[in-house]
Amino acid sequence: MYSSFEALRKAFVNHLLAVYDQREANTIFKEVVAVELGWDAAQFVLNKHEAVSEHITHRFKKVLDRLVLGEPIQYITGVTHFMGKDYVVNPYVLIPRPETAELIQWVLDDWSMNNASMSAIDIGSGSGIIPIELALNRPRWTVTGTDVSEEALDVARKNALNLGAKVHWLNQDILNPCLSDRYRIIISNPPYIPRAEAGRMSAQVVNHEPHLALFVDDDPLQFYAAVMQFAKEHLEDDGALYFECHEDYAHDVEQLCLEMGWRTDLRTDLQDKPRMLRVVRVTGEE
Ligand SMILES: C[S@@+](CC[C@H](N)C(=O)[O-])C[C@H]1O[C@@H](n2cnc3c(N)ncnc32)[C@H](O)[C@@H]1O
């Protein structure tokens, strides 16, 4: 038991320094306080000299034990923040990365019209961030989110319900798709890490995030080729396809699209890494 919340904070952050740097440890402590006590930073300051009960000490210790073993805070609290909203997450879905917001913003900037005839499909939706953000920002569009994982679709449905987004959810395997519609926009952040690279990745990611979302058996372009094949048949002539890519493979994905006779624009993210690709048909050459 701690004499005060300030003493609890110091001990908690100190233990976290085994896994995180000081800034990350402070941020994580604030997240835990928000979820466990419902306090924001100002409320913490107001209450920091209060004594901490045994019950609360026990709850913080349980969270700390999981954090020290490398479990991401988002899976412990069950929530992550993305584009100003709270999204539910669990170990069946990838924790959304900030770069994906840049991809979504690119689509929204390109297609500012909120036209009821527009339809968009996201392939590999995970927690649902991409189709949900499109549906919330363009409420007249018909937006579809797909994933091969039923557990991920459950999370995506929950997020759509919590945030009031109208999205059609479909269980689809992009390696063997079974859809007949055509779409103005196709978007995908597919798995792309060759399984052989797992040993060089952070244990936090490899031990906790879903392998179905991260890894491909050996070809990092496998899903990009499948989505391109899907686009060949299902993208409207004046539509566009958007990919999120790993910085190491973005040029290879671009090359694949060029070889298939499409036109590409590769963009860098805020870290100046090539991460986003827009692909359109070359009219008359298909
Ligand atoms: C890199 S995650 C992206 C998740 C989410 N769109 C995001 O940006 O945070 C890739 C997603 O593709 C899904 N996936 C894996 N194999 C698939 C397949 N064969 N067909 C459709 N989706 C698949 C995974 O379940 C995972 O949710």
Task: Tell me about this structure.
The chain is an alpha/beta fold and 286 residues long. It has two domains: 5-69; 80-281, Vaccinia Virus protein VP39 (Rossmann fold). The chain contains twelve helices and eleven strands. The strands form three sheets. A seven-stranded mixed beta sheet has the order 5-4-3-6-9-11-10, with helices on both faces. It has a two-stranded antiparallel ribbon with strand order 1-2. A two-stranded parallel sheet has the order 7-8. Helix 1 crosses helix 2, helix 1 (5-16) runs parallel beside helix 4 (54-68) and helix 6 (98-110) packs parallel to helix 7. It starts with a helix and ends in a 5-residue tail after the last strand. The mean pLDDT is 95. Bound molecules: S-adenosylmethionine. S-adenosylmethionine binds at residues 94, 96, 100, 124-127, 129-130, 147-149, 152, 172-175, 189-191, 212-213.
Key structural traits:
binds S-adenosylmethionine; single chain; seven-stranded mixed β-sheet; alpha/beta; 286 residues; 43% helix; Rossmann fold; 2 domains
